[in-house]
Design goal:
Blueprint lengths: L1 H4 L3 E4 L2 E4 L5 E4 H8 L9 H10 L9 H13 L7 E7 L15 E9 L2 E8 L4 H11 L7 H9 L5 E5 L1 H9 L20
Parallel strand pairs: 3-4
Antiparallel strand pairs: 1-2, 4-5, 5-6, 6-7
Helix pairs in contact: 2-4, 3-4, 5-6
Length: 195
């Protein structure tokens, strides 16, 4: 930000964003409650579905993970203008992430939000082959389970973590661009049919 904009205090889409201060950190559950106004026991699927319906989420065909993501996206993310790290996600939202030792309902995952966008997603990789297989069977379509991946875990994988950054969104933020098309080096083009 300093190199591109000359300052750690930038403006994007009419909002003043301060990257120089400590970034707010909040748990997933507290973000739903304090920012989204949703108070629900995340382990109670029936009440979660009821609350989601009341928030306008059509839950009929959605998994618990999808419901949680919809609630976060609809009620919380638009309010995360200043840099905010949301952490301690329910384990259903990240089937490849390691569970927290002190609360197995949660995983070691965080996401960074700025300007109402998710800019980064990170987690500690689950390296237990037995638990990984169980989770994939529970949360994934059986046809798409990567057996080679599961077999490689059986050989052993050291503690590992990963971080994915939305580079296009980051460039949009730093260049105050309104559209992702302005920053993508090779945007998708419409197909030409009458060549």
């Amino acid at each position: 930000a300093r190199k591109v904009r000359g300052n750690l205090k930038i403006e994007y889409n009419g909002e003043k964003i301060d990257l120089s201060t400590s970034w707010r950190k909040i748990t997933f559950k507290d973000a739903l409650h304090r920012i989204g106004g949703i108070e629900v026991n995340l382990e109670d699927d029936t009440k979660l579905r009821k609350v989601a319906r009341e928030c306008g989420v059509n839950v009929d065909e959605l998994t618990k993970s999808q419901i949680l993501e919809h609630l976060l996206d609809k009620k919380v993310v638009p309010h995360l203008i200043q840099p905010t790290i949301v952490y301690d996600y329910p384990y259903e939202t990240a089937p490849l992430a390691k569970r927290k030792k002190d609360d197995p309902f949660l995983v070691e995952r965080f996401e960074l939000f700025i300007a109402g966008w998710e800019l980064a997603n990170a987690y500690s990789e689950l390296n237990d082959p037995v638990e990984q297989k169980q989770r994939l069977k529970k949360f994934a379509d059986e046809r798409f389970i990567d057996q080679d991946f599961l077999e490689s875990l059986e050989y052993g994988m050291p503690p590992t973590g990963g971080l994915g950054i939305g580079i296009d969104r980051l460039v949009m933020l730093f260049t105050n661009s309104a559209s992702i098309r302005e920053v993508i080096l090779f945007p998708q083009l419409k197909p030409r049919y009458n060549l």
